Amino acid sequence: xxxxxxxxxxxxxxxxxxxxxxxxxxxxxxxxxxxxxxxxxxxxxxxxxxxxxxxxxxxxxxxxxxxxxxxxxxxxxxxxxxxxxxxxxxxxxxxxxxxxxxxxxxxxxxxxxxxxxxxxxxxxxxxxxxxxxxxxxxxxxxxxxxxxxxxxxxxxxxxxxxxxxxxxxxxxxxxxxxxxxxxxxxxxxxxxxxxxxxxxxxxxxxxxxxxxxxxxxxxxxxxxxxxxxxxxxxxxxxxxxxxxxxxxxxxxxxxxxxxxxxxxxxxxxxxxxxxxxxxxxxxxxxxxxxxxxxxxxxxxxxxxxxxxxxxxxxxxxxxxxxxxxxxxxxxxxxxxxxxxxxxxxxxxxxxxxxxxxxxxxxxxxxxxxxxxxxxxxxxxxxxxxxxxxxxxxxxxxxxxxxxxxxxxxxxxxxxxxxxxxxxxxxxxxxxxxxxxxxxxxxxxxxxxxxxxxxxxxxxxxxxxxxxxx
Length: 469
Hints:
Radius of gyration: 23 Å
Low-confidence stretches: none
CATH architecture of the largest domain: Alpha-Beta Barrel
Helix content: 40-55%
Shape: globular
Strand content: 5-15%
Largest sheet: 4 strands, parallel
Distance between the termini: 47 Å
Strand order of the largest sheet: 4-5-8-9
CATH class of the largest domain: Alpha Beta
CATH superfamily of the largest domain: Metal-dependent hydrolases
Number of helices: 20
């Protein structure tokens, strides 16, 4: 019998790498500090009838691969029956060789369902039947998957207007095996150029019970929502940017731009950038005051296909890596907060790998000795959370900073089966370090290097985020 594709030493190319993974990484719990899992699913302990529901709904990675394979939209995001959509995906999987989707698909089948058979058009019915049968059991509910994955805590991604009722229900029930905490994601509050901005300001006013008549009252209303999130256990904010905004913008200038937008006039591109810079400062100030961690994601161009954006809407798989300059914006943004003694713990995620060394060196300029790894170079994000992207991020951080203080991997996913990505990351990490040990670049000391592995897998994140019991 040939060895299964996903075996004990998958991605581990030496005995040293194998020892690092199996002795130090494999059994570490998970602190998933950034994900897009729906809190309602956890509150209701959702179950799924089949793999299409669990796997294909909301997965932009798979949608892009299906389209690239010539699959019509009806079988991607359309109204085709679940079984037909799964068949289309099964027939696409062999075409994903050399794409991380091939790895992820088979790791998930192996780890959660115990299936070694490769997925393709001919095996689709057998795998559909096996998985559908298993999905009927309690261990495949949301809570069951979280428990099997050893998830200690997870942080969802939530708009400031969210009432957080599902988080409250999860906390009150005490049934979830993992702590589930919100993350403050105020992107819409920065989108002054959007035709929906005025309506969103009104929604913030309603959620905060504030009469918003000016920029200053807008900020105060957002501070009330920030307080509300904090009371519900939130300790992180997240900001999705096309690029970092470091433009100069006084409160008086921000007020004029705010008034212009509320009067129905579209701000110029320059004014929009200035307003975003002003809001990033305000949010940074709030985050520092409460000791939160702020996450800054940048380097993406979203919804670049105008026809599909019109027909399918946002977040449907038509985003790409951007190439806008980032250094000056980051330096100005972080420097402004530092000058005001308001720079909190910060994680920077870049989507363009050309910026890896830039970010790895820039974070060293804002470390202040108060917290180990206070400013973090975030893990390979989105298009970079695959083997090559992970290795490049690890190498850049190791060469320019302290890899030993890295807070490690996250899922950034809407799929509960994506917790296998932590295993995938850990295997890549252990293989990289094991190779260095084999070549004499690191000491042949499993306890020394293994301790760093264990910290990166869980210990550093546990200390950094201070999410409590």
